Amino acid sequence: MASMENPDQTKSGDEEKHVTRKLGGLKTMPFVISNETFEKVASFGLLPNMILYLTNEYHMSIATGANVLFIWSAISNFMPILGAFLSDSFLGRFLVIALGTVTSLIGMSLLWLTAVFPQARPPHCDSPMTGSCVKANSAQLAYLFGSFVLMSTGAGGIRPCSLAFGADQLYDPSNPKNKRVMQSFFNWYYASVGLAIMISITVIVYIQDKAGWVVGFGVPVGLMFISTVMFLLGSPLYIKLMPNRSLFTSFAQVTEAAWNNRDLVLPPMESGGAIWYFHKGSKLITPTEKLRFLNKACMIRSPEDIDMDGRALNPWNLCTVKQVEELKALIKVLPIWSSGIIIAVTISQQSFPVLQANSMDRHLIPGGLKVPAGSFGVFAMITLTIWVAAYDRIIVPLLSKFTKRSQGLSLKERMGFGLVISCVATAVAGLVESKRRAAAIRQGLADNPYGVVHMSAMWLVPQHCLIGLAEGLNAIGQIEFYYSQFPKSMASIGDWSGSFYPWHGSGELDWESNC
Question: Any stretches that span the bilayer, and where are they (predicted)?
Answer without folding.
Answer: 58-82, 94-120, 140-167, 188-207, 213-239, 372-394, 415-432
